[in-house]
Amino acid sequence: MTSSPTTDPSTRAAAPSGFRRYDPDHLSSAQKLMILVLSMTLFGVADIVADMLPSFSVGPLELEVAYFAFIPVVLAALLNPLWVALGVAIGEAVIADLLLGSFGGFGELEGFLQLFVGTYVAGCLVKDPRKVSQLFVAALALVGIDKISSAVIDVAKVAVGVDPEALDDAGGTIAAVVLSEGLELLMALLITGVVFGGLAAAWLAPRLYGKIEPLMGLRPRDPQHPPRLTGPWGLSFWWVAVLGILVAALMGVLSQWEEFVGREDDAVTTVGSFDAELADTYGADVAWITALVGLVVGLAVVLAVAAVVRRRRARAVGSAAENEQAR
Questions:
Q1: What is the rounded distance in angstroms from the CA atom of residue 125 to the CA atom of residue 138?
Q2: Rg of the chain's alpha carbons, rounded to an integer?
Q3: Does residue 233 contact residue 102 with C-beta atoms inside 8 Å?
Q4: Phi and psi (nearest 5°) for 225?
Q5: Residues 12, 311 contacting (CB under 8 angstroms)
Q6: Is 275 helix (H, G, I), strand (E, B) or coil?
């Protein structure tokens, strides 16, 4: 695949002054907002669509699409992984539910943290979005981190005795629960990670490389200067990631314990939760309608901010040219 002048990292010095080289420390507020809104809109709407897809059972295995993993992989491979991860996590934990008129409350933090860590790691693993192998690794890393942490949390619930139903369904032993979670993980890696992750991302990312970044005033990712896994305040990312997964595990176990002891009405993990029951009131088609509305509104916000950024960049380039002529 040949690169256009705007996608060739070697031409970085010749770029207009209004462009910003891919660097998470030098993103403007408008660029962060565009990445955030685009990520949470696309993934939030896609999550609604994924939930409406049918699932199939083959013996003890359930074949289903957990989510369209290629969306966070492609976005995190092309744009700033940190802001993409934040947008994707918000889209899954908040936007998708709010569009359907419901919200799980504080307990949504569990899924938020798992998906945030997985998306951020996946984005930083891609040095060159045109490399198919890197995109496959990123997709498997995203789904692996998300689903492995979920499996560990589910096993922990059984181990501490707050999820006896899962223990009975698996055959009454911890080993059976581990085996069941392992099979589910394998299916998730195959279906969500490979089919709806790596394959789709490998086709889409190289074709979008160098095309959506200029709309946000960004240079395409430079393989010689890829994003790095860094934590806040100079901390190691892996310590922060482990802490995030531990908090997610705590929320998962706490939520199951509150259900086990019958504290659903005053549970901590359901603080802020609500259910408008839109599907019961307006029928199943409400999901498609809300998904379409959310997509249109989200893209409209991104395009509006992009227009403002382009106008400011053109004004800055024009002012620089006038100053140069005045000299």
A1: 6
A2: 22
A3: no
A4: -135, 65
A5: no
A6: strand
Query: CA 126, CA 97: separation in Å to the nearest integer?
Result: 30
Q: What is the DSSP letter of 57?
A: E
* CA distance linking residue 47 with residue 142, whole number of Å: 15
Overall size of the chain counted in residues: 327
In this prediction the pTM is 0.82
CB atoms within 10 A of CB 202: 21
The tokens describing 65, both together, are 């699409």
Any bridge partners for residue 232, and if so which?
A: none
Q: Smallest Cα–Cα separation from 158: which of 143, 172, 179?
A: 172
Give the per-residue SS3 of 155-169: HHHHHCCCCHHHHHH
State the burial class of residue 56 (Cβ atoms within 10 Å of its Cβ: 0-12, 13-18, 19+). exposed
What DSSP designation does 11 have?
G
Q: Are strands 61-63 and 102-103 parallel, antiparallel or unpaired?
A: unpaired
In what helix (H) or strand (E) does residue 62 lie, and over which residues does it extend? strand 61-63
**CA 115 centroid distance within chain:** 6
CB 49 within 8 A of CB 87: no
Element (H, E) at 56: strand 56-58
In angstroms, the CA 155 to CA 185 distance is: 13
- How many CB atoms are closer than 10 A to CB 24? 14
Domain extent listing, the chain:
9-326
- pLDDT value, residue 8: 45
Question: Which tokens sit at 147?
Answer: 């689903």
- Residue by residue, DSSP assigns 77-107 as HHS-HHHHHHHHHHIIIIIHHHHTTEE-GGG
Average pLDDT, the chain: 80
- Whether 168 shows a pLDDT value over 80: the answer reads no
Query: Poorest-confidence range of 64-73, 107-116, 118-127?
Result: 107-116
